[in-house]
Amino acid sequence: MITQYSYGQCECKSNKPNVLDYYQKWQADEIRADLQERRTDAIMIFDNIDYSINIGCGIRSNNAFLGKAVYVCGRRKYDKRSAAGTNHYENVYHADTVKEVIEHVKSIGYTVFAIDNIMEYHPINIMDYPLPKRSAFVFGQEGSGLEKDTIDLCDNMLYIGMYGSVRSLNVAVAAGIVQYEYTRQWH
Which residues contact 81 (CB under 8 A, 6 or more apart)? Predict the structure, then answer.
């Protein structure tokens, strides 16, 4: 079942939320309403098997690039500290499984991309791929990546081209790069 997380109390101990100066005197519900008017159609889906700080960072990236929604699948709990308060302004949902989210977003016309670099799936470099406007991106776990069952549900696999010696990026960085590339193509 897909449910929306509550926005919670938007209170900062310093009494200065992490928002642009423009929003400093606004209430959280006013900020949410203003952002809602300008959102893109991008959807981010995170597989939350293990407790991860990356999901909060992904929510923060979603706010920075005004994605439509974030889905946290599996464990309900995630580390909100790395969202830096942006979870109060974003459309964040929980689902028991990635499968139910993929089925849901496909039913409303989305193309779903696995984000991973598993070469036997012949992934395409995201920088070389014209993304559909209604794109959803699925991110796996830091160490293990995406499960085969999840990959098989996706329409295609994209990867982020890298040129150094590291095998992969962490989930938070990958989510930010994917959001940036989507926004570059569609903003």
Answer: 53, 56
What is the DSSP-derived secondary structure letter of residue 164?
Answer: S
Q: Dump the DSSP string for 103-134.
A: HHHHHTT-EEEEE---GGG--EEGGGS---SS
**What span, in angstroms and rounded, lies between the C-alpha atoms of 79 and 64?**
18
Give the mean pLDDT of 109-128.
95
Calpha distance 69→90 (Å, rounded): 7
Segment 29-43 mean pLDDT: 93
Question: Hey, what domains does the chain have and what are their CATH numbers?
Answer: 25-186 (3.40.1280.10)
Contact (CB, 8 A) for 81 and 14: no
- CA 86, CA 66: separation in Å to the nearest integer? 11
